[in-house]
Amino acid sequence: MGVTGPPGPVMDRDEVDRALARLGAEHEAIETSLLALQDHAGRRLLEGAELTGVTKERWTATEASITLLWTYFDAYTAALRTAREIRARRRWSSREDLAELTELLRGESVTVAGSAAATANAPTLHGNSGRLTEQYSLVTLVDRMNELYATSLDMVVAADAVWSALPARIDLLAAELQRTRKLAHSVGVRPGEHPAGDDLERITRTLTRLREEVVSDPLAYWLPTEGSSAPGGGRPDTTVYDREARALEDVRREIEAVLTVRQDAEARLVKLRDVLSRADRTLAEARTARGEVLAKIAATEVPVVSGPPTVLQEQLATAAEYRRQAQWHRLSPLLDSLEQKAEDELLRARESLTAVTAPLAVRAELRGRLDAYKAKVARHGLAEDPFLIERYDAARRMLWSAPCDLRVAEQAVLRYQQAAAEQLSAASHVPEQGGPQDRRGETSS
Q1: Backbone angles phi, psi at 440, to 5 degrees
Q2: Torsions phi, psi of 189, nearest 5?
Q3: What tens digit of pLDDT does each residue of 9-55 get?
């Protein structure tokens, strides 16, 4: 929609003809815009909708603005028709005709009469509020139509954009919600019995309320673009929708996890029984080893080995019962917890066995050291040394006797090591027999 030129002195014939041509083109453009607004799908939806909130308030004002727009357009059309009739009186317009045309085309010569019903809710020009008739120049009238058209189109486009974007997406999400609800019901996930069932109920209520609000008050879910003057500048506010879509996705993943439990439950229960059985066998081995240590090792602290926890066996029986009753939503968290506890129990049993058999491991290490030094002594030709044989026999008696005092045995092994090291060191410093004689023989020869 365009704007005519500024007022000025009496126009000549060429100026009048150019102005009329411009006004005719402008009239056609304004009419096209108004008809497009009249046929806009968003406007037709607004007319038939039961609106609430901010949308109801703005649509009331917009309806009045559109009515006023047509009133202004009719006045504009009448003024243009009058100007054309004056110009058509004669081929060469007289001075009086040109003065009348100048006043009509540039002066405040257009009278707009509006009823109270038509203008009550529409915005009015500053200083003219409350009047039943107003005087405009064609320039002012076009400015006024441009202003009303922009605000009306902005409201219509914004509402239409929200209606085009959100209800369809909400319906798709609601359909996905229904599928998830059926799937949840099939695995026993129900409101009041499982958190995911409660989440599905909450999402259902939120989506129902959101759709009702979007349909009745679309402008409540419109975010205008800051600084934009173009009609419809902005985007639908999808914050609530996006939040519920994420929540539904979380629930869906949880339901899928429960379905996976249903498929893998037997294999997981078998594995759990195996892990707990291995833990029990390890603890039994630790208890047997503790008796052996107490019989073979003296003067040492041997930790007590506890029995298998009955609570895990009870929980395992409960899990099996859940599986028989197809209570998958209860079985899923119980299996997760049991699997971790079973691994912890197996680790505890292995640590108990290690702690109980530690004295035997120490004795085995001392025996290994003793035999290793004996072999070293033999390689250096000292196997028959009486002192070393005495030290070796003393240490060996302690290590191969029961009960074995590890502290005393370790001291005996250390004494044998020290004696062997001393003998080996002394043997390495003894000069070889016949060396000097050889060297002297070489000199005398």
Answers
A1: -65, -40
A2: -90, 105
A3: 887 888 888 888 888 888 889 999 999 999 999 999 998 889 999 99
Per-residue pLDDT of 285-308, as tens digits, reads 888 888 888 888 875 677 788 777
The torsion of the CA quartet 78, 84, 87, 90, rounded to 10 degrees, works out to: -110
Query: Residue 226, Cα to own-chain centre: how many angstroms?
Result: 28
In DSSP terms, 134 is beta-bridged to: 112
CA distance 346 to 338: 12
Question: Could you tell me which residues come within 8 angstroms of residue 26 by beta carbon, excluding any fewer than 6 positions away?
Answer: 1, 2, 4, 142
Pairs from 252-261 (Cβ < 8 Å, separation ≥ 24): 252/176, 252/180, 254/196, 255/180, 255/183, 255/184, 255/187, 255/189, 255/196, 257/332, 258/187, 258/189, 258/328, 258/329, 258/332, 259/183, 259/187, 259/328, 261/328, 261/331, 261/332, 261/335
Any idea what DSSP says for residue 110?
E
User: Is this model's pTM higher than 0.85 or not?
Assistant: no
Pick from 117, 116, 111: nearest CA to 133? 111
Task: Tell me the pLDDT tens digit for each residue of 111-149.
Answer: 887 544 445 455 554 444 456 677 888 888 888 998 999
Q: Is the pLDDT of residue 77 over 80?
A: yes
List own/partner pairs for 145-149 with CB under 8 A and 24 or more apart. 145/1, 145/30, 145/69, 145/72, 145/73, 145/76, 146/1, 146/3, 147/123, 148/65, 148/66, 148/68, 148/69, 148/72, 148/122, 148/123, 149/1, 149/33, 149/34, 149/37, 149/69
Q: Are 77 and 24 in contact (CB under 8 A)?
A: no
Type of residue at 1: M
DSSP code of 109?
-
Hey, where are the domains in the chain? 13-158, 161-258, 286-429
Structure tokens at 240: 């609530």
Question: What is the DSSP secondary structure assignment for residue 265, as one 8-state letter?
Answer: H
Residues 6+ apart with CB under 8 A from 52: 216, 217
CA-CA distance, 106 to 4, in Å (whole number)?
Answer: 9
d(CA 107, CA 109): 5
Tens digit of pLDDT for each residue in 294-346?
A: 888 875 677 788 777 788 888 888 988 888 877 777 888 888 899 899 999 99
How far apart are alpha carbons 442 and 439 in whole angstroms?
Answer: 5
Contact 430, 325 (CB under 8 A): no
The residue written with tokens 């002195």 in the block is 9
At 161 the pLDDT is: 93
What residue type is 78 in one-letter code?
A
CA distance 416 to 322: 65
